[in-house]
């Protein structure tokens, strides 16, 4: 491993002692740095986004230059830091390699290089391929996007990247998230969720927006500013918030609003659900905003993707909560790029989760009976 030998002596020692206190300490540092750069990229691109910079994918969902450029940046950093790790990323560069994709491609390459070559911040390392002068070629960046093509599976080290989760929220100027996780032998070890548009503290709007949530297996969950300042541990309160409300998708096509209504009625919940795009919902839950996140499928066919739930799941679990499918089974991140047969997602604090699960099962039985009648 020549890159370890090249490490200056003092840094080797620092690196080792830090690693002993937290497994995956270097991974955490790299992941936070990558998400931070991608968050700056996506928020600056939003202000400059023009109509023809968004494509519609085969599944009818939108993808913007921001999604592609952010995946290129994160994947490049991961590849420099951990060259033998696999990546399961949402986007691929096929359309950008076509002649018709040239305009979009040039814009994406410029955005990615601007983000990669930005000044080094606290904790950043030139060995991760970042900093002034570290421009990449078009080919290198398209390959970086395509390195996200790993099929996933039961064994090995792999990262999941969702460069913009909640692209529809991003396009509306509302919530979205830059999401990264490390999965080792199908267990999520690390999750990082960057939310550029989320209030730092909903009780103090003056503190502004821009939060990164981080969780490491067995080491808790925290929230920090985009800059890395003010790291604060997160714990889901064990008593129910006085206003029990569900967190749910804005988009009715992504999860069933009517099913959630029925579950709310069964639980005598009177407050309307809080609708929010992306894994920002998991972040809010982890910091005690909203009592549960319920995501039941709307119809046939859609399989949830691992990059949409791995970071959020470890965040909620490390904040003391529980995440399962609608049968109460843990989400299985070892089945490939999707969650396979895991049907629906329920996330909540320890006691709340059990009550919601029960109500979900009652509502599910009712629904089946109705369908048979
Ligand atoms: N038909 C669908 N059912 C459930 N989720 C979907 C569907 N289509 C896209 N998604 C994905 O749902 C997630 C966002 O859901 P929400 O914001 O409603 O919680 C995103 O990952 C989005 O992809 P994307 O990452 O492309 O935005
Ligand atoms: Mg998408
Ligand atoms: Mg997503
Ligand atoms: Mg996405």
Automatic annotation (TrEMBL):
Catalytic activity: 3'-phosphoadenylyl sulfate + H2O = adenosine 5'-phosphosulfate + phosphate; adenosine 2',5'-bisphosphate + H2O = AMP + phosphate; adenosine 3',5'-bisphosphate + H2O = AMP + phosphate
Biological process according to GO: sulfate assimilation
One function term, GO molecular function aspect: 3'(2'),5'-bisphosphate nucleotidase activity
Major enzyme class: hydrolase
Residues bound to Mg(2+) 1: 162, 164-165, 308
PROSITE patterns: IMP_1 (PS00629)
Swiss-Prot/TrEMBL cofactor(s): Mg(2+)
Record-linked Pfam families: Inositol_P
Keyword vocabulary terms for this entry: Hydrolase, Magnesium, Metal-binding
InterPro entries linked: DPNP, Inositol_monoP_metal-BS, Inositol_monoP_superfamily, Inositol_monophosphatase-like
EC number from the UniProt entry: 3.1.3.7
Annotated binding of Mg(2+) 2, by residue: 90
Homology family: Belongs to the inositol monophosphatase superfamily.
The protein, known as: 3'(2'),5'-bisphosphate nucleotidase
Organism of provenance: Tricholomella constricta
Source lineage: Eukaryota, Fungi, Dikarya, Basidiomycota, Agaricomycotina
